Every structure is written in C-alpha cells, then in structure tokens.
Amino acid sequence: MSRSSRPCVPFHLTEKKTGTSYPDILQLHFIEMKRFKKLHRNGKINPDDRLAKWIEFFANEDDSQWKIIASKDPIIKKAVDRLEIISQNQENRWDYEIRQKALKDITTMKEGAREEGKIEVALEMLRDGLDVDRIAKLTGFTKDEILELQKNLNKE
C-alpha cells in the first residue's frame, strides 16, 4: 500500500534532547476510519498488509464477519478466539479465567522450583569449594548473587 493511500499516520517516540527516534519502543497510529473504509471499498488496500487487516478488524461493525477476518491472519484469529471467550456467558467466562489463572500459577511454581534448584546446586558447589566465577558461569547467576549466597552460607 503506498504511503499516500494509507489511511493512518504513524507517530514514533523521540528523545527530546537528541532527537533520537525509538520506533521499536512505541508507535502510535491515528487511523482515519472513513478514509480506510472508502479505500477498502474501492480495492485500494493491499489485502496482505497486516496493519490493514487490523484496521479492517477494528472497523468491522458486524460480529458475524470475525471468522472471515480472522482467517486472513493467525494473530487476528487468536484475538478473535479470545473475544469469543470473553463474549460468552458469565459462567463460561469465569471458567476460562480460573483456568488461565491456574495455568499461570503452575508456570510460576515451576519457575520457582527451578530457581530453588539452581540455588541448591550453587550452594553445594560453594560447599565443595568451587570458584565463584565458575559457579556463576555454570548456574547463570551473577558473581554478586553467588557472593550473597556465600555470605548466607557462612552464617549457617
């Protein structure tokens, strides 16, 4: 889609003093919906343009078109799937939220257990007299973290 036919104007974060642009941090796109709809009707929107797909999705006023729009892009399909869950009845939505929370809790517990295991391994290495730099390299902890563990070990 050529820049002149694009129905949106992108803005980027810029550092005030140096003028350095940070497009990877944040972009704002102001979309002229009437212009987009007109260009879309006249076939002037590239159907493969991801931003255009999202604009079409947001401009859509008919929920029955969600599946058609979702079939054009896997990310939009994921958004539509979530919207369908959210728009279900209260009980189904509650079940979904409980399941999502449970999955997050399981992930957090696994990460905590993994971290605890790494700490135990690092402590055992310290007890065996391994070099702090070597322990840091093997466990992924920083040297300061290993020294902190060593301090706690010496207090025992």
Short description:
With 156 residues, the protein is mainly α. The protein is built from seven helices and two strands; from the N terminus they run ββααααααα. The protein has a two-stranded antiparallel ribbon with strand order 1-2.
Give your account of this protein's structure.
There is one protein chain. The chain has 156 residues and is mostly helical. 62% of the residues lie in helices and 12% in strands. It contains seven helices and two strands; from the N terminus they run ββααααααα. The protein has helices at residues 33-41, 50-59, 66-70, 74-86, 90-127, 132-139, 143-155; strands at 8-14, 21-31. Strands 1-2 form a two-stranded antiparallel ribbon. A hairpin with a 6-residue loop joins β1 (8-14) and β2 (21-31). α1 (33-41) crosses α2 and α5 packs across α7. The termini are far apart.
